[in-house]
């Protein structure tokens, strides 16, 4: 597949791929773990797209996107095409190729959260339902390509909201301790009134309150709101602590517990003194923190919390990782580093970390929809694909032989 519109940090990834309670430590269980197994598949045919990505599904439709062309494809559940439309250029509802992966309302409308153009909602046939301004201009974007959920449509107090994150910047200002103390990390947009508010400060005990400067991507939040029990789960990309909030009715979320996760191969950044950096260049590459460990997805499926993360090198290993990136490593070193760099998913069950075996996946990413996990079959290496297969499956314990 011809992919030509992404960035240096993505290139590195592709090369290396193949508070109110005490924080408590957890360790990997010595058992057989979990696995994701396919229960069904759907193939869509005759697709001409530069970056064709599965996005979402409901009882009636499958939704795909050509991210390089701001183009949406809608199929029925048998894989037959229904709608195909593009929103780019000088047209109502235009959105950019860096818009978040698509979410759906209960009515089946498509929600697009775009940090450059703003919020859009479309019917499946492409009719524009809502167009709203961007909440605040953003100076950075997601670096990689995946199909993980980036935001969430929720029902609360009889209203429909979009939960999304502020991404990287509040306003152009001096960065210091006060910046992190005042920052609110999540956005909540009423899809009827379009009113947006910021909430969720850094919790007490978070490293981002310790007076150091961090790359922006370190404190990008991932989250999941469980409506039935009014509980919000939240984690920051380079801080492996799961924060759990009680979020009742109109009240502000209240932090009820937190758990530090011992993720194999995950290395936290310690932060820098503010005088070493200036606002606007706080990215890992610019701060010479290559290959940062990063949590990429947080989901809840049944009683299991799923966390997908990207390992990174310790300070002493960065030179070897750089040799692999530049193609200067011998075969043994290359294989060693590629194994260490493999992205991983863990299941958190009753506070215990359990490994999860993943089937081969396009861009090592999946989408949780209800109690199912959806993913794309990897594309061909030697030819440009026109047929794409999506699997749906379940998470189950690995059965001992």
TrEMBL record:
Gene3D superfamilies: TolB, C-terminal domain
InterPro entries: 6-blade_b-propeller_TolB-like
Protein name: 6-bladed beta-propeller
Organism for this UniProt entry: Cecembia lonarensis (strain CCUG 58316 / KCTC 22772 / LW9)
């Amino acid at each position: 597949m011809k992919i030509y519109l992404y960035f240096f940090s993505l290139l590195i990834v592709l090369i290396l791929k193949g508070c109110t309670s005490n924080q408590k430590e957890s360790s990997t269980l010595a058992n057989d773990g979990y696995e994701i197994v396919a229960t069904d598949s759907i193939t869509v045919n005759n697709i001409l797209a530069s970056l064709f990505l599965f996005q979402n599904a409901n009882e009636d439709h499958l939704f795909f996107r050509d991210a390089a062309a701001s183009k949406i494809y809608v199929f029925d559940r048998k894989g037959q095409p229904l709608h195909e439309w593009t929103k780019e250029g000088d047209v109502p509802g235009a959105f950019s190729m860096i818009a978040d992966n698509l979410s759906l309302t209960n009515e089946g409308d498509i929600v697009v959260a775009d940090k450059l153009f703003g919020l859009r909602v479309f019917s499946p046939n492409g009719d524009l339902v809502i167009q709203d301004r961007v909440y605040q201009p953003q100076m950075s974007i997601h670096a990689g390509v995946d199909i993980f959920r980036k935001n969430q449509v929720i029902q609360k107090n009889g209203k429909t909201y979009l939960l999304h994150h502020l991404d990287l910047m509040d306003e152009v200002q001096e960065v210091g301790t006060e910046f992190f103390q005042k920052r609110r990390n999540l956005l909540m947009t009423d899809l009827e009134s379009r009113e947006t508010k910021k909430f969720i400060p850094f919790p007490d005990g978070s490293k981002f309150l310790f007076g150091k400067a961090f790359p922006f991507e370190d404190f990008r939040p991932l989250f999941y709101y469980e409506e039935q029990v009014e509980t919000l789960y939240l984690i920051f990309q380079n801080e492996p602590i799961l924060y759990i909030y009680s979020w009742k009715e109109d009240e502000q979320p209240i932090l009820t517990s937190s758990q530090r996760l011992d993720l194999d191969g995950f290395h936290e950044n310690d932060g820098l003194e503010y005088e070493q950096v200036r606002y606007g260049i706080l990215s890992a590459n610019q701060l010479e923190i290559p290959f940062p460990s990063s949590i990429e997805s947080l989901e809840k499926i049944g009683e299991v919390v799923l966390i997908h993360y990207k390992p990174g090198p310790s300070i002493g290993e960065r030179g070897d990782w750089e040799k692999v990136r530049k193609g200067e490593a011998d075969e043994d070193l290359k294989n060693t580093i590629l194994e260490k760099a493999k992205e991983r998913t863990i299941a958190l069950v009753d506070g215990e970390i359990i490994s999860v075996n993943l089937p081969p996946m396009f861009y090592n990413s999946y989408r949780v929809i209800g109690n199912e996990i959806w993913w794309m079959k990897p594309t061909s290496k030697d030819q440009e694909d026109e047929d794409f297969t999506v699997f749906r499956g379940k998470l189950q314990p690995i059965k001992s032989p």
